[in-house]
Write a structure and sequence with these properties.
heterotrimer; A alpha/beta (about 500); B mainly alpha (about 110); C alpha+beta (about 500); A: about 500 residues; alpha/beta; Amidase signature (AS) enzymes; 11 strands; about 10% strand; globular; C: about 500 residues; alpha+beta; Arc Repressor Mutant, subunit A; 3 domains; 9-stranded mixed β-sheet; about 40% helix; about 20% strand
Chain lengths: ~500, ~110, ~500
């Protein structure tokens, strides 16, 4: 069995026993990137120091020095997360040559656990998109069907894990940007509770919604990564001080007695019938695992997309004001200050980003704040209350991650609303701040992955990981790999 | 892309104003297309008006509430000027340089 | 409506400027005296090399996040309490969005609808015509971060502007008054008192040269016109960084508004709020922008920060540590130490250290008049000359008290006393040591008699002058006496000479 077929926890074991060296492991994935990234465009940049870092870990191991729990494990990081001295573009021309002088907190944590960053993954510009087509560096292809999108915005991270160019990856999720691409690419993706994982060093899209999380093949690998990246960070004011759970330990507990809620409307309206069937089939798996299924009401979640498309652009319009041509890399030619601003931002941002900045600027402008941002924030409260009430009755909420399987490249690029609806089931968790995970279920008849979403109470990622892990013990959908060479799918 | 100063576009004064406020140069065609998309999305989000919300509902701005996040008044090392200015498109090694507020009228 | 052609324009010419009332509100930006910036650990020290005091947070580097400085909160509460403000139970942060090259994030973190300090007031002493002390209402005071510094090409030849971000993120408290001030002098008086208070409570050194206290003034006129009172359009004068600029710009602006009104008759309803800048060189205000087309700040809650809850216990604790405020001390000096109002004002204006020094000396020597004379004149002059603060003054209050006791007892006359003081300051020694160094010792009666006899014998001309009625001429003899024996007490000599001459 080649290394790329193995799960991260197995690789870590082999590294620990000395069966595999970190250098060989890192080199193996770098080779795969070398030969396959041309097909996927999953990476924007490759770390030049990865082999060197692996070598030093091997030396430390040889010398019997204590090593972190991920020592020697290759990992891919979404390019919206700062890695000191390495290009960090957020998928934008605006930051094409940006090299942050600092590590994001999670990068610091991963590095000190011994993980080796092998590259930065492609994404929709500033995480705005659901297909990774809005990247200045070109779209990423889905390894299950290279003429289809991998989802987005963390499409590069999803595609590289599905295509086995990296064993595991880190993404970020503002409205579904971890879970939706995980679903499209047939992998597991966790959006943690808002505040569970530090945002320090994550290039902001919408600060009150953004959250970093793991993108892996299995729930167990996600638990492994969470045990490293979660926890309080004094540099992030929104970071939670709540004690981090032992994510790995709770995985093995059985699900008997677990109460799982299902929202009837989420299985009806606008849902692809095949997706519906596979999700419904999975419900019986959970029943067999001992869970009780109950129907619940989430009356306000139908307004979630509308609220999201006010709140996120408003925050983004302000978060992206710093890209003005003064301090970071791109500046357009200009004779005076105003022209510099307008040309830099006119040329440095892609269309979707400009569109969302326009929308956010409009919604926050004088006279509109109450009608838009304030109203949307009140709807957000109602959505949160829906969850609060639901979690009185059930422990988890189950449903589809996305209404369809991966769509074709270019299919929705001219229709923003159709694109936005790809997030219809995912945005509510961001609005409420709760954790949610996507796991693969039985693929569609034409072989495209389908994702099932589980949502849980705030700070109860461990329940999600446990349920996902138990599901993955009972099923094998997560073990499927797209057969190489990767093909298109009409 | 036209570099001439924006003429107020009669049909779309709002879009023009927003583009100015956001400091984004859009040519006439982009302004039109942006205006159309804006209208489409605003039309979509107008469904929020239908959501009934009682007076006592307070807005929810973020996920964590009621915890004070503060730091002690302690100095931490600044980043070296060289490193900080490294990403600037134009600097003289001491300052960031930006075009003048008013352009040179001689040229 | 074309006001200029209104027949009333001639009537407007009849109104006199001094009939109108000036309405002034101030927005004062005070730099809080913290070591580190409001949201990061960079130093707030003034005068560092350009861009040497910045980090990823205060330069708004992508991915960086702010965390609030606790001390800045405490200083704001302290300031609010000293201005009788209500302190918010919960305060939050908002973004004020606008583009400027020295504003790295493209927004300023400020406070919009839940400022840390709510309504309060500050009483100021009477100025000029108004005979009563005046209560100036404070509308609010909020915390915000400062921007950096832009250095524009003064030649206007289209050279690049230079940006220095050292100041970016320095904590500012913006104190906003109600439009309660009625003259330029009152505005100045308000600012002086505010500055003094903030000094007293260690919130800010208010160093205006370093820009640690900056002020915007909102000014308009109420002009009696026929039956009604006309309000002229409000003008905001920006960035006044000296008391003189505040005073002069308001005086100038009032006059300008009056003339503009006579000219065009525009009232507050006819024109939007204007922003004008004060030009120190031309001593006039010039239009910067009309508020109407100004930035639309798009305030909204900063999602990177969470609300701060302020407990009553914390407020009470800060209150208990405030100490006496200038107004309390003025009252104390006047009522308990019998100082004249003007003397009390001078003493208190020197800062808490000087007042404490005075109190200790006055209590020690039990003569507040002499203590005031000596400290108010000698000590302040010496501090001024040596550019020292009272903490650096080499003479301790105890030593000073000892000196004054000798003066009060007549052991040292004023002149000798001052010599002793100078010696004490110069060599950092006690009064006893200074007296020894100067060779001062008591002169006994016999010595004095001998001295006087010698003077009379050698100065017959002067004696004759005195005898013929020129009593002042005795001063010449006293002067000579001091040359012959510096320890001779001029009072005793005068007394003895007078007696000997007249007998």
């Amino acid at each position: 069995m080649t290394l790329s077929a193995l799960n991260a926890d197995v690789i870590v074991d082999k590294l620990n026993t000395g069966e595999v060296t970190a250098t060989d492991c890192v080199q193996h994935f770098l080779d795969r990137i070398q030969s396959h990234n041309g097909d996927l465009n999953a990476f924007i940049s490759i770390s030049e120091s990865a082999v060197e870092q692996a070598e030093s870990i091997d030396q430390l191991r040889k010398a019997g020095k204590p090593l972190g729990c991920l020592a020697g494990l290759p990992i891919a990081i979404k390019d919206g997360i700062c890695v000191a001295g390495q290009p960090t573009t957020a998928g934008s021309k605006m930051l094409e040559k940006f090299s942050p002088p600092y590590d994001a907190t999670i990068v610091e944590k991963l590095k000190s656990a011994g993980a080796v960053i092998i590259g930065k993954t492609n994404m929709d510009e500033f995480a705005m998109g659901s297909s990774t087509e809005n990247s200045f560096f070109g779209p990423t292809a889905n390894p299950w069907a290279t003429n289809r999108v991998p989802g987005g915005s963390s499409g590069g991270s999803a595609a590289c894990v599905a295509g086995r160019l990296a064993p595991v990856a880190i993404g970020s999720d503002t409205g579904g940007s971890i879970r939706q691409p995980a679903s499209f690419c047939g992998i597991t993706g966790l959006k943690p509770t808002y505040g569970s994982v530090s945002r320090y060093g994550l290039i902001a899209f919408a600060s009150s919604l953004d959250q970093i999380g793991p993108m892996t093949r299995t729930a167990k690998e996600s638990a492994l990564l969470m045990s490293v990246i979660a926890g309080f960070d004094p540099r992030d004011s929104t970071s939670s001080k709540i004690q981090v759970a032992d994510f790995l330990k709770s995985l093995e507990s059985p699900l008997s007695g677990l109460r799982i809620g299902v929202v009837r409307e989420h299985l009806d309206e606008g849902l692809d019938s095949e997706v519906n069937t596979k999700i419904t089939d999975s419900i019986s798996v959970f029943k067999q695992l001992g869970a009780n299924i109950e129907e619940i009401e989430m009356p306000h979640t139908k307004s979630a997309i509308a609220a999201y498309y006010i709140i996120a652009p408003c925050e983004a319009s302000s978060n992206l004001a710093r890209y003005d041509g003064v301090r970071y890399t791109f500046r357009a030619q200009a004779d005076d200050l105003e022209e510099m601003y307008r040309n830099t931002r006119g040329q440095g941002f892609g269309d979707e980003v400009k569109q969302r900045i326009m929308l956010g600027t409009y919604a926050l402008s004088s006279g509109y704040y109450e009608a838009y941002y304030l109203k949307a924030s009140k709807v957000r409260r109602m959505i949160k209350q829906d969850y609060d009430e639901a979690f009185q009755k059930v422990d988890l909420i189950l449903g589809p991650t996305t209404p369809t399987t991966a769509f074709k490249l270019g299919q929705h690029t001219q229709d923003p609303l159709a694109m936005y609806l790809a997030d219809i089931y995912t945005v509510s968790a961001n609005l409420a701040g709760i954790p949610a995970i996507s796991v693969p279920v039985e693929p569609s008849s034409n072989g495209l992955p389908i994702g099932l979403q589980l949502q849980g109470r705030a700070y109860e990622e461990s329940s999600l990981l446990q349920a996902a892990h138990q599901f993955q013990i009972a099923t094998s959908w997560h073990t499927a790999n797209p057969s190489e060479p990767w093909r298109t799918q009409s | 892309m036209s570099n001439s100063p924006e003429q107020p576009i009669a049909e779309q004064p709002i879009v023009n104003r927003i583009a100015k406020l956001a400091r984004i140069h859009l040519d006439q065609q982009q302004l039109e297309s942006s205006g159309n998309k804006l209208e489409q999305i605003l039309d979509f989000v107008s469904q929020l008006e239908q959501v009934e919300i009682s007076e006592d509902v307070s807005p929810f701005f973020g996920a964590i509430e009621s915890v004070n996040a503060i730091r002690e008044d302690q100095l931490t090392p600044s980043v070296s000027r060289e490193k900080i200015l490294d990403n600037a498109p134009e600097s003289d090694g001491e300052f960031y340089l930006v075009p003048p507020v008013f352009r040179n009228t001689d040229s | 409506m074309n006001h200029a052609s209104n027949p009333q324009s001639t009537n407007r010419r009849v109104v006199r400027f001094d009939q109108s009332e000036i309405i002034i509100g101030l927005e004062v930006h005070v730099q809080l005296d913290t070591d580190s910036k409001l949201f990061c650990g960079c130093s707030t020290r003034f005068g560092g090399a350009a861009n040497s005091q910045t980090c990823v947070v205060c330069t708004g580097m992508p991915g960086s996040l702010p965390v609030i400085n606790q001390h800045a909160l405490e200083l704001s509460i302290r300031a609010g309490l000293s201005l009788n403000c209500q302190i918010a139970q919960s305060t939050k942060w908002d973004r004020k969005n606008y583009f400027y090259p020295d504003l790295p994030k493209g927004y300023q973190i400020s406070q919009f609808d839940q400022p840390i300090c709510g309504p309060g007031y500050l009483d100021i002493e009477a100025v000029e015509n108004s005979s009563q002390p005046r209560r100036i209402r404070i509308e609010r005071a909020h915390l915000e971060e400062d921007a950096g510094k832009s250095i524009h090409d003064e030649s206007n030849r289209g050279q690049n502007s230079k940006i220095d971000l050292n100041r970016t993120g320095t904590p500012l408290l913006e104190i906003v008054t109600q439009p309660d001030l009625r003259s330029a002098a009152e505005a100045k008086s308000f600012l002086s008192e505010l500055k003094l208070i903030l000094n007293y409570i260690d919130v800010s050194d208010c160093n205006m040269q370093q820009g640690n206290l900056r002020c915007d003034a909102n000014v308009n006129l109420h002009i009696p016109f026929g039956e009604e009172k006309i309000a002229t359009p409000i003008v905001e004068i920006k960035n006044l960084n000296s008391f003189r600029a505040v005073e002069r710009s308001i005086t100038h602006e009032a006059q300008r508004q009056f003339e503009a009104w006579q000219e065009n008759g525009f009232t507050i309803a006819d024109a939007p709020k204007q922003t004008r800048g004060w030009n120190d060189h031309t001593q006039s205000t010039t239009l910067q922008r009309e508020k109407e087309d100004s930035a639309d700040y798009r305030y909204f809650p900063d999602p990177d920060l969470i609300a701060v809850k302020i407990e009553e216990v914390q407020i009470q604790q800060i209150k208990s540590q405030l100490g006496s405020l200038p107004s309390d001390l003025r009252k104390l000096l006047i009522e308990r130490y019998n100082l004249k109002s003007a003397d009390a004002t001078v003493m208190v204006s020197q800062g808490r250290g000087v007042v404490n020094y005075f109190l200790e000396v006055a209590d020690g020597c039990e003569n507040s008049r002499i203590a005031n004379n000596w400290i108010g004149q000698e000590v302040l002059r010496q501090l001024n000359e040596s550019n020292q603060t009272i903490d650096q003054y080499p003479v301790s209050p105890q030593q000073f008290t000892e000196l004054l006791k000798l003066v009060i007892a007549g052991t040292l006359d004023q002149t000798r006393g001052k010599e002793v003081l100078n010696e004490m300051v110069e060599h950092c020694i006690s009064s006893q040591e200074a007296i020894k160094r100067l060779g001062i010792k008591p002169v006994d009666n016999r010595e004095l008699v001998t001295l006087c006899e010698k003077l009379i014998a050698e100065n017959q001309e002067v004696i004759e002058q005195i005898q013929s009625g020129n009593a002042k001429a005795i001063g010449m003899l006293i002067g000579q006496a001091r040359k012959l024996n510096p320890n001779a007490n001029p009072g005793l000599i005068k007394e003895m000479l007078s007696k000997m001459i007249s007998s």
